[in-house]
Amino acid sequence: MINFLIARSFVSQACQRRSRLGFLHPNASHIFNSFSSVVKSSESAKPKQKKVHESSTVSYLMNSCGISPKLAFEVSKKVNLKDPDNPTLILNLFKSYGFSNSQISKIVIKHPSVLLTQENILLPKLKFFESIGFSRSEIPELLTYNIRLLVWSLRNRIIPGYEGLKSVIGDNHEMHTIISKRKGWHFLHYDVKNLAPNLKVLRELGVPKSSLNVLLNRFTSAASVDHAKFVEHVKFAKEIGVNPFRVTFIYSIHALSMTKKSTWESKLDIYERCGWSRLSEEMFLEKFVFRFQESAPELLNIYLDQLKHSPEALKSSSV
Q1: Which residues cross the membrane (predicted)?
Q2: Looking at CB atoms within 10 Å, which of 99, 199, 257, 319 has the fewest?
Q3: Domain contains 81
């Protein structure tokens, strides 16, 4: 009897739920099914729309930028050209400044989002390079080999960096010579505010101008380190006997900027135990500064102990 009443209660509740759904709408089930089909249809349409955009982007990159089908497909993964108007405007701006088709292709492949850049962002950059002495025949090569100039902010990075380096170089002709090189704008990767005080320290020591140019052109990172650390590097290079009138001094500063002072001191102790004097260390630095790595002491032990070579033989070696 009890089981019969429980079963009857369940049937009654089920009927009530069904009647409430029916009260909401007589075709509720039909509406739900229709809604589900609409959702599925819209979801299935999304991949199709994406493929359409990808296809149009690939076609534009091939036809307007001269990029091969394979590369165009790869580049299309990084940029979505929904509207060709702005990309065409940018391409025409490049062409008006003398960019060749191959140069435009290289730029778009390396930095495809340039096609989405607004004209009022790109044009002032082009005019700036003209204002500092680059001709319209030089600007295309400059930007092709310095793609980051198209990415960096003109107001917040390019102009402040240029003015900072110019305050150090002084001479306009020399400044133009530096920034005209393929890697001439490498200094923008670093904080140029330290350049002036750091170079002042070297000038006061009598470091030749040719050595300063090596520091600026090849070792900008070493020239841009925190001023207090730079002074420490200069002091330590002097302490180990490196001649500031030779370019070796610049190499030493560069190596010091990449190595802790404690590491250098431990290595120099090993060299002294091998029989080198401070003057000999300068000769060693001149030959091996770019190999002054963590394994140097171990290599010395192999050279001197296992191979039985003398310190004098290593100093005179051409390796």
Answers
A1: none
A2: 319
A3: yes
